[in-house]
């Protein structure tokens, strides 16, 4: 996709990650089990954002120089987990979400991959299903359903 790049973030990208994370929680709070309180006020420090980016792969989508999407991965036991997925409203419906998901699938390197998605978030479920993730039946206490992609 012309003009859009996906980069592996490092701690020096903390300001872009911060902007995206805070926007995601403010603009689409219903899509996340986290809240803005977890990443604002006393929790909003450069040190914390840098530590987050040093703690596992975080990918940022840029449209030119503007950050427009984010996703992260982490290892839980022997499996990979996709977390913090979000694309800015002005950048949606351009394939950026698929590009971000593909980066985490590639990073998972054949491991089983899971994620949690808010129950009823049909656009997200559809995007994840395109990458082979399967929606599970149970809804957890936070209102999320698990999606799994076998190894």
Instruction: Estimate the mean pLDDT confidence.
Output: 91
Largest sheet data: 7 strands, mixed
Q: Could you say which overall geometry the principal axes of the C-alpha atoms support?
A: globular
Major sheet: order of its strands? 1-2-3-4-5-7-6
In the predicted model, the low-confidence regions spanning at least 5 consecutive residues are none
Q: Please compute the radius of gyration using only Cα atoms.
A: 15 Å
CATH class (first level) name:
Alpha Beta
Secondary structure tally, helices? 4
CATH topology: Aminopeptidase
In whole angstroms, how far apart are the ends?
28 Å
Number of domains: 1
Overall helicity: 25-40%
Number of strands: 7
* SSE string, helices as H and strands as E: EHHEEEHEHEE
The proportion of strand residues reads 25-35%
CATH superfamily heading = Gcn5-related N-acetyltransferase (GNAT)
Provide the CATH architecture: 3-Layer(aba) Sandwich
Structural class: alpha+beta
Topology:
Layout: E1 4-8, H1 14-27, H2 46-54, E2 58-63, E3 66-76, E4 79-87, H3 96-108, E5 113-118, H4 122-130, E6 134-139, E7 144-149
Parallel strand pairs: 4-5
Antiparallel strand pairs: 1-2, 2-3, 3-4, 5-7, 6-7
List keywords for this structure.
alpha+beta; globular; 32% strand; Aminopeptidase; 151 residues
């Amino acid at each position: 996709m012309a003009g859009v790049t996906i980069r592996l973030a490092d701690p020096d990208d903390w300001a872009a990650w911060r902007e995206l994370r805070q926007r995601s929680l403010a603009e689409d709070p219903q899509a996340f089990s986290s809240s803005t309180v977890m990443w604002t006020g006393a929790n909003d420090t450069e040190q914390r954002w840098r530590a987050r980016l040093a703690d596992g792969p975080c990918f940022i989508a840029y449209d030119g120089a503007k950050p427009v999407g984010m996703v992260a991965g982490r290892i839980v036991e022997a499996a990979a987990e996709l977390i913090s997925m979000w694309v800015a409203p002005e950048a949606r419906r351009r394939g950026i979400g698929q590009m971000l998901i593909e980066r985490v699938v590639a990073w998972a390197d054949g491991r089983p991959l899971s994620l949690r998605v808010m129950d009823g978030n049909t656009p997200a479920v559809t995007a994840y299903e395109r990458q082979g993730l399967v929606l599970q039946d149970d809804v957890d206490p936070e209102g999320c359903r698990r999606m799994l992609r076998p190894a």
